[in-house]
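[Q] Does anyone have a clean structure-token version of this?
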Amino acid sequence: MLLAAFVAALHYLALAVGFGSVFARGLRLRDLRRSSSRDEVLTRLFRADSAWGIAALLWLGTGLVRVFGGLERSSTFYLRNGFFLLKMGLFVTVLALEIFPMVTFIRWRIAGASGGAAVAEAKLGVLVRLNDLEVALIVLIPFVASLMARGVWLF
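[A] Here you go.
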């Protein structure tokens, strides 16, 4: 019971840190549009992005333990619940949306480390929109999870 509570708490904390990190990353992307001091903004952007990556891995890892570890409910409860499947669909969508920003930020880090220009102006608008969509989906996930946890069935 104590282990289940600990894993659940880590799962919720990962969500909170992840949401805050993605939100902060969006602010830094907006700062890049209007800032002349890009080095400091990029440093803060990369910190937020790294925190988001770590939080997403923790969120995924603790979620897998909760589903398949038999700590609280059986995996059947989760795998047959439509809201769980919707929640996973939303999470996979967030991960798919993350591919372009992840690749872009890796390229920016490499370019910055080699002394090149790190930011391509044309991509900022796309990155901001993708980030905003990720934020919206991350906000939606706990609502779906709450319905799932209460045994509400989508189908």
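[Q] Thanks! Anything notable?
[A] The helical segments are 2-34, 38-68, 75-79, 82-113, 124-149.
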